[in-house]
Amino acid sequence: MRHVLSALVQNVPGVLAHVAGMLASRAYNIHSLAVGETESPELSRMTFVVVGDDNILEQVRKQLEKIVTVVRVDDVSSKDHVERDLMLIKVQADKADRPEIRELSRIFRGRIVDVSPDEMMIELSGQEKKIEAFIDMMRPFGIIELCRTGRIAMIRSVNRPIVGEPGSDGDA
Amino acid sequence: MASTDTAAQTQLLSGADILVQSLVRHGVDTIFAYPGGCSMPLHQALTRVSDKLRTILPRHEQGGAFAAQGLARSTGKVGVAMATSGPGATNLVTAIADAKLDSIPLVCITGQVPTGVIGSDAFQETPMVEVCRGITKHHYLLTDVNDVARVMKEAFLIASTGRPGPVLVDVPKDVQLASCVPDWDCKLNLPGYNPAKPEAKPEAIRQAAAAIKRARKPVIYAGGGVILSDASEELRTLVKKTGIPITTTVMGLGAYPGTDELSLDMLGMHGSVYANYAVDQADLLISLGVRFDDRVTGKLEEFCKHGKIIHVDIDAAEINKNKPAHIPVQSDVKYALTELNKIVEAPEDISDWVAQCKKWKKDHPFTYDKSYPGITQQSAIEKLWQMTADMDPVITVGVGQHQMWAAQFYKFQKPRTWLSSSGLGTMGFGLPAAMGVQAAFPGRLVIDIDGDGSFQMNIQELSTLVCEKLPVKVLLLNNQHLGMVVQWEDRFMRGNRAHTYLGPIDKPEWHGEGDGIGEMDQANRYANFVMIAKGYGCGGAYVDKPEDLEGAIKEMIAYDGPYILDVAVPYQEHVLPMIPGGMTVKDMITE
């Protein structure tokens, strides 16, 4: 099972190392970890994608809550939520391939952010599956470099009963 | 009075003075501190409060930190140790990890290189916070003198509330030397920490009481949490009201009187046959302040296979961690027991069950080879218990066979009278821990029951005992071997000796040959601990004949000062019963 946890942490030195160290030393399987500031300068937000059964999820959550600088932990994936990942991808793009890459980027609602005589850089955000589908589409052209932020997620203001995929937002 | 208060509130103080005055304000009366380049300002400040705060100089930082643990474990107060940066600080690490696993409130203060050179691989620089992240409850690197008062307040709060544990405060030298006017009433900055004791929900208490009422074969399984939450009285009340047999973990010894007929003594790997049988057959396990450690459970799936589990613990993360609880009760144990005792009723009829437990206890007592012509470890501990039971002593131990035998044969009656490195299993714990207890209770009888392996891991503290006038007694069960490892070699590795003999390499015993002891006289044994004791200025004697033991113990207790009684014991003895790691009660070895 895949779970998304979101932790509000004190914005103090070492908190990322503390959290990452705890997860590593207890051998939890973390697929993605994203950190960034929040609306409050005193707090940062960490978003984790954890893979494991409900017991593992419960342990990860409780162990996170025990860390003194962790203020709150939410199980985002248990609620209706929006999930995003941001990617920059650089692909080989000679003259002949450029139109197709441009078309694919448009379909995926990506943005071409850099072009050189035989390479293109595309910015794409969306759900994990969409990002992965786009990567697959780019593979035949030749991926030169790729980097991703890791998942970030937020619970919707109005929680409607979940239809279909959790976190599904109809975006592409 | 008012004028001095005002003066105190506007006076510039150095970071070192603020830190040391914080200790005094938190009621610390003894600190174990070893100085060095980066902690000298702190030590200078300690001399300015010497009328309120005694500074004891250990002979090794690890000794100091275990002494702080000894003080904490025996009094319930926060223990405090201090060391300089680099090697001084890393020497604290084992004791910090130890305190984490046994949930002991400890504040460790380390000097650090000045902030300007942090990260430059300066002389005696170690990234102490990085080193200690996983083994502390919390940790601080102070970078601003204005934070010292607040951080010290937070450190003491975190160490002593909730599930207690060690807190590290790393203090760069320039922060010690900088000055400010301390704000003693500063606000804490702990939005993620709730120091309030979690209290069981009434519904959970009702469920627990109902389960107890329905139980046919209940057993109480009590651990260190009972002692930490000062709930030993409430535990006794529960047993009295319900008549349910009780077993304790190593950490829980003393929470319930070891001589009571409902006491099943310790459970687990070297626990009693009767405790392990009872848990195996139980239909309800009332688990109080325990964590289902592997040394208790063996194979998890088989542990208490037929029983429902009530699990009371202050730490939510312990519940369902190793063994799922049918009735989880996240609570301070004292609160939960107080509430439970208000409504609990005795189970309808458990007389057959109690009789069965008592029969097991009668049929399979802790036992040993009484035909051995010399002194055995078990007989020495039993004798010590018989002679000192009425003297309200505190017993500390090292780690290994002697530790398990002490747990089996010394019957503890009161909490905080048995101090053992239980989770981490740190050899060398006994002597410095005893030193800390003696510092907290100057007039009390404090005995370190030790093995010759463990004893030598912090033997340098004999010097501290003499110089600081701490009259700790050491019952040294000297078998010339690392007995517990020898036992495993004998049981699982065909007796092949792999560096478990503590004597010279040209002796046949080094290869597992010879009789393992040599001549039973002191000249043939290594080292000469009596001579070592005397070299440090302690009293000491050697004893190898059973008929001399009682007199020798008497002499030890009567001696005015620290004393080592070197007792010659055989190495062939095994700690029994034994459930090999990861196995079940069915695999219990009893001979």
UniProtKB/TrEMBL annotation, chain A:
InterPro entries: Acetalactate_synth_ssu, Acetolactate_synth/TF_NikR_C, Acetolactate_synth_ssu_C, ACT-like_dom_sf, ACT_dom, AHAS_ACT, AHAS_small-like_ACT. It catalyses: 2 pyruvate + H(+) = (2S)-2-acetolactate + CO2. GO terms for cellular component: cytosol. GO terms for molecular function: acetolactate synthase activity; acetolactate synthase regulator activity. Pathway: Amino-acid biosynthesis; L-isoleucine biosynthesis; L-isoleucine from 2-oxobutanoate: step 1/4; Amino-acid biosynthesis; L-valine biosynthesis; L-valine from pyruvate: step 1/4. Residues 4-78 form the ACT domain. Coiled coil: none annotated. One of its GO terms (biological process) is isoleucine biosynthetic process. Its EC number is 2.2.1.6. Pfam families: ACT_AHAS_ss, ALS_ss_C. Signal peptide: none annotated. Keywords: Amino-acid biosynthesis, Branched-chain amino acid biosynthesis, Transferase. Catalyzes the conversion of 2 pyruvate molecules into acetolactate in the first common step of the biosynthetic pathway of the branched-amino acids such as leucine, isoleucine, and valine. Dimer of large and small chains. NCBIfam families: acolac_sm, PRK11895.1. Belongs to the acetolactate synthase small subunit family. PANTHER family: ACETOLACTATE SYNTHASE SMALL SUBUNIT (PTHR30239), ACETOLACTATE SYNTHASE SMALL SUBUNIT 1, CHLOROPLASTIC (PTHR30239:SF0). This is Acetolactate synthase small subunit.
From TrEMBL, chain B:
GO terms for biological process: isoleucine biosynthetic process; L-valine biosynthetic process. It catalyses: 2 pyruvate + H(+) = (2S)-2-acetolactate + CO2. Transmembrane segments: none annotated. InterPro entries: Acetolactate_synth_lsu (IPR012846), AHAS_TPP (IPR039368), DHS-like_NAD/FAD-binding_dom (IPR029035), THDP-binding (IPR029061), Thiamin_PyroP_enz_cen_dom (IPR012000), Thiamin_PyroP_enz_TPP-bd_dom (IPR012001), TPP-bd_CS (IPR000399), TPP_enz (IPR045229). Gene3D superfamilies: 3.40.50.970, TPP-binding domain. PANTHER family: ACETOLACTATE SYNTHASE CATALYTIC SUBUNIT, MITOCHONDRIAL, THIAMINE PYROPHOSPHATE ENZYMES. Belongs to the TPP enzyme family. This is Acetolactate synthase. The lineage of its organism: Bacteria, Pseudomonadati, Planctomycetota, Planctomycetia, Pirellulales. The gene is ilvB1.
